[in-house]
């Protein structure tokens, strides 16, 4: 795969491929319409964005799922969708009609 010149780089995983980055796609679409100096500014922005994306700490899906499950189990008793709301504290309960006979 050729990126920015004649360097041949192989990527084993799509997440390692800089062409999948939103910054790269933005840059690639804009470069055909820009002059040299604005092209350089755009490339610097792309590099900055790619460095930012590379610095983000990744969490494995299995770890994130385990953390989410643990959070749900810890907070299940306070969740009104799971435990329900008592009719005395429910502001959305149907109002009783008062009738005199």
Query: How many domains make up the 3D coordinates?
Result: 1
What is the number of helical segments per DSSP (H or I, 4+ residues)?
4
Instruction: Sketch the major β-sheet.
Output: none
Q: Label the structural class.
A: mainly alpha
Distance between the termini: 86 Å
What is the number of strand segments? 0
Order of helices and strands: HHHH
User: What is the subunit arrangement here?
Assistant: single chain
**Runs with pLDDT <50, length 5+?**
1-12
Q: Which band does the percent of strand residues land in?
A: under 5%
Q: Could you report the average pLDDT, rounded to the nearest whole number? A: 76
Radius of gyration: 27 Å
Please tell me what the overall shape is.
elongated
- Helical amount: 40-55%
Characterization of this structure:
There is one protein chain. The chain has one domain (1-77). Mean pLDDT is 76; it is low at 1-12. It has 101 residues and is mainly α. The protein is built from four helices and no strands. The chain has helices at residues 22-30, 36-55, 61-74, 80-83. 47% of the residues lie in helices and 0% in strands.
Summed up:
It comes from Cottoperca gobio (Frogmouth). The chain is mainly alpha-helical.
Keywords:
101 residues; mainly alpha; elongated; disordered N terminus
Tell me the layout of helices and strands:
Blueprint: H1 22-30, H2 36-55, H3 61-74, H4 80-83
């Amino acid at each position: 795969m050729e990126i920015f010149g004649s360097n041949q780089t192989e990527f084993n995983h799509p997440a390692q491929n800089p062409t999948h980055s939103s910054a790269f796609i933005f840059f690639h679409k804009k470069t055909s319409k820009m002059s040299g100096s604005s092209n350089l500014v755009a490339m610097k922005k792309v590099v900055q964005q790619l460095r930012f994306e590379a610095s983000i700490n990744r969490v494995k899906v299995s770890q994130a799922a385990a953390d989410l499950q643990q959070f749900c189990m810890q907070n299940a008793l306070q969740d009104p969708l799971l435990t329900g709301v008592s009719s005395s504290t429910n502001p959305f309960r149907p109002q009783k009609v008062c009738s005199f006979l």
